[in-house]
Design brief:
Elements: H1 2-12, E1 27-31, E2 34-37, E3 42-45, H2 48-51, H3 60-71, H4 84-97, E4 102-107, H5 110-125, E5 129-133, H6 142-146, E6 162-166, H7 181-199, E7 206-209, H8 225-236, E8 239-243, E9 268-271, E10 282-287, H9 288-291, H10 306-321, H11 324-342, E11 349-355, E12 358-363, H12 373-385, E13 388-389, E14 391-393, E15 399-402, H13 410-427
Parallel strand pairs: 3-13, 5-6, 5-7, 7-8, 8-9
Antiparallel strand pairs: 1-2, 2-3, 4-10, 9-10, 11-12, 12-15, 14-15
GO molecular function, one term: alanine-glyoxylate transaminase activity
Cofactor: pyridoxal 5'-phosphate
EC number: 2.6.1.44
């Protein structure tokens, strides 16, 4: 029984691990873009295990690749031995990273990937100074938490790094929100110069930034901002780390990586989530001279293991063969355009934003920019009641987040859109 499972969960797991919904659900099966709970209720999934089930559920090509590896009897060997699946996947990722002379280090999660990127950047530059972005999220480990600019996700005020903070791309509130896109870029670059001159000792190791802020509610800056920042960084020899944990693999529709919207190439790129489609797989790609900045023996026991990289190879091959980046652009436009037309004009909707299949709706108290997390939660619960799973986020918990599998069909996009529009309008007390 779900109720019994909930009681058992609460008895043995920490209270700071949240569960979605007033009545939490257990997902027991899935196929395509749909999942079924323990009560037999089916849902169209628009959150994909927090943007992780990128290809969907029960995909034959991925299942068969994993089964072939299982049949060898080798589930784990450690990276002290050659792993064919790992080498093949690293070759594919290095080639697609856009980074010249790239090396790849596999980990198990985005947190570990960002931790590794921070390790090599600070070693390479011999500095523990980092530039990070307000409203960001980079993971739950010590250093990754230290560069997370969202107090809801910063479980400790202690920090092994010296961090200076830059403005985010928030268009709803904040000092830069009132500016045009071009003015915002200019102001953000000017701010970077001032931060370097006033808050650092000059020898900064790196800037870490998400092209679209995930936990931050899918906030993103105008295209071209990273290019403006990168020009300043290059003047000082500062490295640029693109956190592509949520934006990678074509999810934005317009590019394979989120950083490409800015016309720059990062020194380090971190990836996770979708590449494993549920299997624990992540890593960092970087220029060889940077990624080799580890002065001692190091490896990840489980990172890039035979099972996860077998899945990763199948995921990447499927993604490319089916041109899922183009599909993300096509079906994402159905959702974005539909939402803007149907609810974008409501005085409780501050913004419909995002790219491709990474979309958010921010809710505010009517006629203001004051966040309305209560309305967001009503919409969230109404979506579930209507048969749609979505996510929540934003600094104030007032953003409905959608990151469906990239295999979402046009018909499913329109089905989900109808549920979303009805949930938003009914929760806001707007007549149908």
């Amino acid at each position: 029984m779900t109720d019994d499972l909930l009681a058992r969960h609460r008895a043995v797991l920490p209270s700071w691990m949240p569960l979605y919904y007033a009545e939490p659900i257990e997902l027991v099966s899935g196929s395509g873009r749909r999942v079924t709970d323990a009560q037999g209720r089916s849902y169209l999934d628009f959150f994909g295990g927090v943007l992780t089930n990128m290809i969907g559920y029960d995909i034959p090509e991925i299942r068969e690749a994993v089964e072939r590896q299982l049949a060898t009897g080798i589930v784990h060997s450690s990276t002290l031995y050659l792993i064919r699946q790992q080498v093949e996947l690293a070759e594919k990722i290095a080639q697609r990273s856009g980074i010249p002379d790239a090396r790849v280090f596999f980990t198990n999660s985005g947190t570990e990937a960002n931790e590794a990127a921070l390790l090599v950047a600070t070693n390479h530059r011999r500095s523990h100074q980092i530039l990070a972005v307000r409203n960001s999220y980079h993971g739950r480990s010590y250093a990754a938490m230290g560069v997370t600019g969202n107090r809801n996700w910063s479980a400790s005020g202690l920090n092994p790094l010296q961090v200076a903070w830059l403005h985010s791309g928030d268009r709803v509130r904040g000092l830069l929100a009132r500016l045009s896109a071009e003015e915002q870029v200019d102001a953000a670059v000017e701010d970077l110069r001032e931060v370097l001159a006033t808050q650092t000792a000059g020898d900064v190791a790196a800037l870490i930034a998400e092209p679209i802020q995930g936990v931050g509610g899918f906030v993103h800056p105008p295209d071209g901002l990273f290019a403006g920042w990168k020009k300043v960084l290059d003047e000082h020899g500062i490295l640029f780390i693109a956190d592509e944990v949520q934006t990678g693999w074509g999810r934005t529709g317009e590019h394979f990586w989120g950083y490409q919207a800015h016309g720059v190439t990062p020194d380090l790129l971190t990836f996770a989530k979708g590449i494993g489609n549920g299997f624990a797989l992540a890593g960092v790609v970087g220029r060889a001279e940077v990624l080799e900045s580890v002065p001692a023996i190091s490896f990840s026991t489980f990172g890039g293991n035979p099972i996860s990289t077998a899945a990763g190879n199948a995921v990447l091959d499927y993604l490319v063969a089916h041109d899922l980046q183009a599909n993300a652009a096509r079906v994402g436009a159905i959702l974005a355009d539909g939402l803007r037309a149907a609810v974008g004009g409501l005085d409780c909707v501050a913004e419909v934003r995002g790219k491709g299949l990474m979309l958010g709706v921010e809710f505010v108290r009517p006629g203001t920019s004051e966040p309305d997390p209560a309305l967001t939660n009503r919409v969230f619960e109404a979506c579930r009641a209507g048969g749609l799973l979505a996510g929540k986020g934003g600094l104030y918990g007032n953003v409905l987040r959608m990151g469906p599998p990239l295999t979402l069909t046009e018909e499913e996009a329109r089905e989900g859109l109808a549920i979303l529009v009805d949930a938003i309008r009914s929760s806001a007390g707007v007549a149908a």
